[in-house]
Design goal:
Helix content: 55-70%
Function: Plays a role in the control of regulated secretion in neural and endocrine cells, enhancing selectively low-frequency neurotransmission. Positively regulates vesicle fusion by maintaining the readily releasable pool of secretory vesicles.
Shape: elongated
GO molecular function: transmembrane transporter activity
Distance between the termini: 72 Å
Radius of gyration: 34 Å
Organism: Gadus morhua
Membrane topology: Multi-pass membrane protein
Low-confidence stretches: 36-101, 105-131
Subunit structure: Interacts with SYT1/synaptotagmin-1 in a calcium-dependent manner. Binds the adapter protein complex AP-2.
Structural class: alpha/beta
């Protein structure tokens, strides 16, 4: 009885297996016939759609919109892909997982482990040959073909989505990130006059503090640019802005020079990813006819960052009452409040960016169809509702996707969380460190473009940053010369039993004799005593700046609560003299208010002066083209450099600074747009990050070289800047024009 039951069970199971195999073979035959009919119908349907709606042709093969029988990529050779959320779906399942999210079912796709073209046909033999050189070349060629088809279709989809509320919302969100980058450039320059006294900085330390932010941004641009092509634009930007915010916050509280330098370095590393990611991210939501104009409008936030930093410095730093201290070891002066306030744009950008989606182009380039489709639908629906057409339906059903060649390791769900993250980070680090994406920018196809862009970025940055830092230094030098011309000199004076309780400033006393004099509660600024004798004098509560005693003799003199440290006594003799309760640390210079206001005012005007250039470049970018804008602005900037020879006073130098900044900004805007459009999506932020890192390196070189000529000659820096701009404008004409092209 039991044997009969087992035989019957085995028979039923075998019959089911046979029926299942017959059903599968029949489905294959029917499916091939349906595919041929579908392809013909899809082509006709999509062609009619193009004629009715006047959309540009698309290379995806048709059948991407609602109303077609199936997706145009239904053929197994189409090369489409699926998202990770639906990967591994069983053919026998009756419900498509994406239907729970309202995503149309995409029947096409590449089989797991295959490239999706003719090279993938051939079963196990084709899969084994994939690792060979020939198979890799064929797979890469098929991938390139898929990317080209995606580029054409993606442009058509952006046309359907329109330009509206979604893009403008993203514009302001990414503008905050770009604003944070503009603020970072100005922070150290504004706090340096106060920080150098608060932390007793030497000249080499001041120079390093001024350059450290550029070095950090150089590292950050390259690092975050490479990561954005691997893990996504939004995620990379969030991480980079978070690092910037955290270390900007810490830098406002740390007391030592080394820790402050370290925090500003990491803050620069964080914000370094802003420019390459922001422009790439925003460009992937813009249709071709809007891209140049709106990327140029986005550049205005860098200007707003400069204005914000100047205004905050003007309002906060001179207010020395905004400070507190705990003993002599911990001091929190107003410049630290300013550093804290400068982190606010970055924090605001993080909060706003958290509500925005990833770039759909990034998802589609990495085989994640469903995620990309949902975001594009969100863009479409948001814009249509804002325009008063909520009933308008997103007609796209299937989008061409590109299979990711080297995906991050998948450790499964059984592995502990900490180990999964560790393996993913190690895998990501290995992929980035190998530099495959970076080296691909020097492939024969992009090699010439990359080298030309390197030259243009370098020459423009060298001249722009060199001159913009040289301008304020020249203004300071002119002010110093005027100040020194008003110095009063006193020789062989004899002063007895006199109490000095007022400010002493800009004086030189030679061969003087001071007997039983009192210096009480006063400030000494730019005071020099040479070959003088102080006998039975009393110094109490003295605050000094740039004050020195050279070859002086002090006899029975008492110093109480002063900042007259030993380095202020040059070749001087102290006989029976005593120092009691000396002030510790370096005190802030309370007498430089006017000079500080001038620095902030000049920076404010310099930032505001680029507004006309921003407006002109935005309005004309899509009309005259990127190359004409870049080359024309560079030539005019080159000519304007020679007017700097006539800047002999403070007002003249400020006016010329504004003129140069207003003209050169159009070149930067055109260069940003060109760089975005000259590289494909899977290399865009890597290339942009590398070029932006090179830009920061050129800035460091330009600043170092130009500063060395302050007070020596004006001709050499001007000739350097003019020559670099002339070379850059010539090389710019050799770049390919990208106006009117779809985003690669």
């Amino acid at each position: 009885m039991e044997d009969g039951y087992q035989n019957r069970t085995a028979f039923i199971k075998g019959a089911k297996d046979i029926a299942k195999e017959v059903k599968r073979q029949a489905s294959k035959k029917v499916g091939r016939g349906v595919d041929r009919v579908t392809d013909e119908y899809s082509m006709r349907s999509y062609s009619r759609f193009e004629e009715d709606d006047d959309y540009p042709p698309n290379g995806g093969g048709g059948g991407y919109y609602r109303g077609d029988s199936q997706a145009g990529g239904a053929d197994e050779e189409d090369g489409g892909g699926h998202s990770d959320s639906t990967e591994g779906h069983d053919e026998d399942d009756e419900i498509y997982e994406g239907e729970y999210q309202g995503i149309p079912r995409a029947e096409s796709g590449v089989k797991e482990g295959l490239a999706g073209g003719p090279s993938s046909v051939g079963g196990a033999g084709g899969a084994q040959g994939f690792g060979d050189a020939t198979g890799a070349v064929a797979a890469e060629a098929e991938r390139r073909k898929d990317q080209e088809e995606l580029a054409q279709q993606y442009e058509t989809i952006l046309q359907e989505c329109g330009h509206g509320k979604f893009q403008w919302t993203l514009y302001f969100v990414l503008g905050l990130a770009l604003m944070a980058d503009g603020v970072e450039i100005f922070v150290v320059g504004f706090v340096l006059p106060s920080a150098e006294k608060d932390m007793c900085l030497s000249e080499p330390n001041k120079s390093m503090l001024g350059l450290i932010v550029y070095l950090g941004m150089m590292v950050g641009a390259f690092l975050w640019g490479a990561l954005a092509d691997r893990i996504g634009r939004r995620q990379s930007l969030l991480i980079s802005l978070s690092i910037n915010s955290v270390f900007s916050f810490f830098s406002s509280f740390v007391q030592g020079y080394s820790t402050f330098l370290f925090c500003r370095l990491l803050s620069g590393v964080g914000i370094g990813g802003s420019i390459p990611i922001v422009f790439s991210y925003y460009s992937e939501f813009l249709a071709q006819e809007k891209r140049g104009e709106h990327l140029s409008w986005l550049c205005m936030f860098w200007m707003i960052g400069g204005i914000y930093a100047s205004a905050m410095a003007w309002a906060i730093i001179p207010h020395y009452g905004w400070s507190f201290q705990m003993g002599s070891a911990y001091q929190f002066h107003s410049w630290r409040v300013f550093v804290l306030v400068c982190a606010l744009p970055s924090v605001a950008a993080i909060i706003a960016l958290s509500a925005m989606p990833e770039s759909p182009r990034f998802y589609l380039e990495n085989g994640k169809h469903d995620e990309g489709w949902m975001i594009l639908k969100q863009v479409h629906d948001t814009n249509m509702r804002a325009k008063g057409f909520p009933e308008k339906v997103f007609s796209v059903t299937t989008i061409k996707t590109v299979k990711q060649m080297d995906e991050l390791v998948d450790t499964g769900t059984d592995t502990p969380v900490w180990r999964r993250y560790k393996l993913k980070i190690m895998s990501l680090t290995q992929q980035v460190s190998q530099g495959n994406n970076f080296l691909a920018c020097f492939n024969p196809e992009y090699k010439r473009t990359t080298f030309m862009l390197m030259a243009v970025w370098f020459t423009m940055s060298f001249s722009y940053y060199g001159l913009t830092v040289w301008f304020p230094d020249m203004i300071k030098y002119i002010e110093k010369q005027e100040y020194e011309s008003k110095t009063k000199t006193f020789t062989k004076e004899r002063v007895e039993h006199v109490t000095f309780n007022f400010t002493l400033e800009n004086q030189v006393h030679r061969e003087g004799q001071y007997f039983n004099d009192k210096f009480l509660n006063l400030k000494m600024k730019s005071m020099v005593f040479e070959d003088s004798i102080f006998e039975e004098c009393y110094f109490e509560d003295i605050t000094s700046t740039n004050t020195f005693f050279r070859n002086c003799t002090f006899i029975a003199t008492l110093f109480y609560n002063t900042d007259l440290f030993k380095y202020r006594f040059v070749n001087s003799k102290l006989v029976n003299s005593t120092f009691l309760h000396n002030k510790e640390g370096c005190m802030l210079d309370f007498s430089d208010d006017n000079n500080a206001y001038m620095i902030y005012f000049v920076s404010f005007l310099g930032s505001l002066a680029v507004l006309p250039g921003n407006i002109v470049s935005a309005l004309l970018m899509d009309k005259i083209g990127r190359l004409r804008m870049l080359a024309g602005s560079s030539v005019i900037s080159c000519v304007s450099c020679f007017f700097l020879m006539f800047g002999s006073n403070e007002s003249g130098m400020i006016a010329l600074l504004c003129l140069f900044g207003g003209i050169s900004i159009a070149s930067w805007n055109a260069l940003d747009v060109l760089t975005v459009e000259l590289y494909p999506s899977d290399k865009r932020t890597t290339a942009f990050g590398f070029l932006n890192a090179l830009c920061k390196l050129a800035a460091v070189l330009g600043i170092s070289i130009f500063q060395s000529f302050v007070g020596i000659t004006k001709a050499v820096p001007i000739l350097f800047a003019a020559g670099a701009l002339a070379a850059g404008s010539f090389l710019a004409t050799k770049l390919p024009e990208t106006q009117g092209r779809v985003l690669q």
